[in-house]
């Protein structure tokens, strides 16, 4: 990189703009976190440091229910989407390009291309029909809706991992009389595992963050943490929302840091 | 190819399909299939208490832009709908332009950092990207509210005496969307600039190009695929935005997403909601097709 001279690459005003962008990007988030420790009832006036809003959020049954539900949905959706995405990634790599492969790609990436509101509305109609016809209620609808839109997020890191994989290892295992299952279990899977975990984590975060589709698909009393917060935003706001947001933010950052360490170490 | 090789290839293809089947089943049931129902619904008549009546009708599609006069049954342009469409397109275009204007220098800044700190700067862009959209919308709400951070600081500084009334206006939605979608612009721009050969700049300067000429004639044409990718990634979710206009627009400054929601709620016009959803989907698909066309043409140039 000796040729990368900084005086050449420097453009007037670019650094200043970038600094302003980073400050603007983080200032609102940091303000939100800071006010979660506000002792005052108002979200506007600083009244000293306090943990009260965290305690309050922790003791709020609606928040507790929504948190448990969010985690349950995210875990189930991540498990389902990662399982099917791993299989699909194995099916669409490590072999000669076959007819219909493009179709499979388009199908898998479909949730990335359709606006969320459109998917939300279509699922509202479909689930309404099923509920009316069968009378079956429950959280399963939300879980499957999440599992579907999480598939591309789980698929991409797994496929990236498979594409960088040395295929001769599998051939070598087969040459040494390993059965296809043994080859998969002892050769492919261990190499693939970081990609699978990374995919599962992305799927988990995506599910945990979803507002729009959940808002349309959920029945009464099935609030997740984001839809609960959306509902609260219509009312008078207290720093309790800041406390909940901060906790969700912390969880996201922990997962992301783990994701980066996981995908980076094996580059 | 021998018969054995042919059989092996067929076997391999069959395995490819078999392994992809579970994912395809879930996507068909919960992503692609439901869209077909939306198509059917857009051609039906609205039910009195929501949902639909099983009778063919084009009113859903007609209702996108036209409204029936209650007195003489003639159709006229629905002003409210036009306003919503115009606002959606206007705000999405403005959001794309603003995120590009500030996102390009930011991406350039990150790409020209030394290799070691570059990963950290990139990570700093990625954190907001993965942070819950609702939380980010709420965070910007905290800043631009009447009693929010911005107004408090400006009043304390004595620059204004009355708070700026930004919240629940188009400006609020615009600021909010630019804030939440900015990482989507920076990331593809960074990817394009990162591949840019900085020696080209030396060559240009050696040939007495001015800074403006270098930017205009050397940098921008080469990073164009990144610009197009970033613009699509910002424009598409902006056009379909639901959460940001709902929270920052206060239910009045509706965009297409909220207008669709309204048809399934108080509006009780599911066929119109279905037709609006499909209109949104068509616009987005056209935008994506343009992107694919440009992206392919650019790679074709590279070879």
Automatic annotation (TrEMBL), chain A:
Keyword Cell inner membrane annotated: yes
Gene Ontology CC terms: plasma membrane
ABC transmembrane type-1 domain boundaries: 67-262
Intracellular or extracellular location(s): Cell inner membrane; Cell membrane
Residue ranges of the TM segments: 12-37, 71-91, 112-130, 136-158, 187-208, 243-262
Chief subcellular location: membrane
Membrane topology: Multi-pass membrane protein
UniProt keyword NAD present: no
Domain of life: Bacteria
BP terms from Gene Ontology: transmembrane transport
Keywords per UniProt: Cell inner membrane, Cell membrane, Membrane, Transmembrane, Transmembrane helix, Transport
PANTHER family: PUTRESCINE TRANSPORT SYSTEM PERMEASE PROTEIN POTI (PTHR43848), SPERMIDINE_PUTRESCINE TRANSPORT SYSTEM PERMEASE PROTEIN POTC (PTHR43848:SF5)
Family label: Belongs to the binding-protein-dependent transport system permease family. CysTW subfamily.
Function: Required for the activity of the bacterial periplasmic transport system of putrescine and spermidine.
Protein name, entry field: Spermidine/putrescine transport system permease protein PotC
Species of origin: Cypionkella aquatica
UniProtKB/TrEMBL annotation, chain B:
Gene Ontology terms describing biological process: transmembrane transport
Database matches in InterPro entries: MetI-like, MetI-like_sf
Family from the record: Belongs to the binding-protein-dependent transport system permease family. CysTW subfamily.
The protein's name: ABC transporter permease
Subcellular location field: Cell membrane
Membrane topology: Multi-pass membrane protein
GO cellular component terms given for this protein: plasma membrane
Alphabetical UniProt keywords: Cell membrane, Membrane, Transmembrane, Transmembrane helix, Transport
One Pfam family cited in the UniProt record for this chain: BPD_transp_1
Residue intervals passing through the bilayer: 21-44, 91-112, 119-140, 172-193, 214-236, 272-292
Alphabetized CDD domains for the sequence: TM_PBP2
Record domain ABC transmembrane type-1: where: 85-291
Chief location category: membrane
Domain of life: Bacteria
